[in-house]
Amino acid sequence: GHESDWRAANTIDYQTTFTEENGYELLFVDADNDHTAQMEAVRNFIQQEVDYIVICPVQEAGWEVVLEEAQDAGIPVIIADRTVSADPALYTTFLGTDTALEGETAGLWLAEYLDGAEANILVIEGSVGASAAIGRTNGFNKIAEQHEEWTILDSQSGDFTQAGGQQVMESYLKSYSDFNVLVCQNDNEAYGAMDAMDAAGVTYGVDGDVIIISFDATKEGLTRTLDGRINCNVECNPLQAAGVEDIIAKIIAGEEIPAV
Ligand code: AHR
Predict the structure, then answer these.
(1) Average pLDDT rounded to a whole number, residues 15-24
(2) What share of the chain in percent tops pLDDT 90?
(3) pLDDT for 148 beyond 90
(4) Which atom of ligand 1 is nearest to the CA of 3?
(5) Does residue 216's CB lie within 6 angstroms of at least one atom of ligand 1?
(6) 160 in ligand 1 pocket by Cβ < 6 Å?
(7) Residue range 110-130: mean pLDDT, rounded
(8) Buried/exposed 175-203: b ≥16 CB within 10 Å, e otherwise
(9) pTM
(10) Is the CB of 94 under 6 A from ligand 1?
(11) Atom of ligand 1 at shortest distance to CA of 160?
């Protein structure tokens, strides 16, 4: 897809790693955040009898049939970036970040920062059904459950996009005036939410009224964190192609590869 700056960095990483110069022919499809289009793309790769398929799954669920088709065709599938809910026996392995841990990290940071003070929290989630959104939500909620002084007022999807973040924030600003924490599940959503708060005259960041937590820590996200507009930014590293290349080298060498 191309929903976020993180995704753009992830895509460039694949395109600069799997080059002809490095001995690869890369067939790349941008599924545009569309689960059905992504499954069709995988089916197309199976028909073309490619050697390896790497999927960064838009959605966590619904992969069983197409993974079985790849397995029947004898094509190793590497699930990258986001997880799938399918049986790990249906694919070679998973390589990506632990998004539940990212959510927990955000929660633990907030607990330390607030030091027992009350929190009225709004959440802008990532794309519905994406493991990165599910993991970050579950991880953060796990910590929130341990804090009676925290209230999650609302949690809605901004689809991991800047426009989505802005739209959700505009609607939150109409309904809530008493929040002091905003959790955005990626940097682009945070930028959109900031635009909405700027327009509404709501202050945020280290010198403002609203604490902003974001995820990804892209270059722009870290810049905004260093200058105090974002209070906490949890890293999710988009540079994963070298790890995928390593897995392919192990498959070629006939080495055992752990499923996850
Ligand atoms: O799966 C990784 C997530 O997807 C990143 O946090 C987000 O920016 C991207 O769209």
Answers:
(1) 98
(2) 99
(3) yes
(4) 10
(5) yes
(6) yes
(7) 98
(8) eeeebbbbbbbbbbbbbbbbbbbeeeebe
(9) 0.97
(10) no
(11) 10
